[in-house]
Amino acid sequence: MSIKYKFHDPGAIYFVSFAVVGWIDVFTRSVYSDILLESLTYCRKEKGLNLHAWVIMSNHVHLIVSSREGYLLSDIMRDLKKYSSFRIVKEIRESTIESRKEWMLYLFAKAGQQNSNNKNFQFWRQDNHPIELDPHLNMFEERIDYLHNNPVKAGWVTNASDYLYSSAIDYEGGKGLIEIDLLV
Questions:
Q1: Can you name one GO molecular function term for this protein (predicted)?
Q2: Which pLDDT belongs to residue 25?
C-alpha cells in the first residue's frame, strides 16, 4: 500500500523524514551519501526545491524543505526519492568492494516484491509524514535543532557542526557540502 506525501499548503515549509527499507545502514558509506547530496543539489537547481536544512543519518534522512512558486513539493520529493534510489541501488549492484552487497540487494528485492508500485527493488520506505512548520510557534528552530543534533544524540560527534553530512555548519556561518536556503 502506498502512503502518499501530503503537502497541503504549496507555500509552506515542511519537516520531512524518510528511511531506507528495513532501516538498513546504507549511509555508513560516503559514496551513497554523496549520491543523495547530488540528487538534492539537482532538485534545488532544476526542480524548484528550497532546501533549508538537512542531515543524512546511517539509515534515514531529515529535511526541512519548501518549493519555489510553480513547483509542487510532492512531485519534487517523489522525483528525489525515485532517482536517488535508482542511483544508489545501481552503485551497490556495480560495486566490487561493497561487503554487504548481496544482503542489501536481497532485502531491497524482497521489499520490492511486496510492493505493487515497484518492479524490482525498493530502496526507500514509503511511509513518511511531512510536518508543516508554523513559523509563529518556533517550529523552525525546534526542528532545525532536532535535525542537526541527531548525530550528536547518536554519539557520532560532540558538536552538530562537526558532522559532515548535515547543514549544521551552514547555520554557524560556515560552508557545508551543498548549498542551502537558510531560514534565519
A1: sequence-specific DNA binding
A2: 98
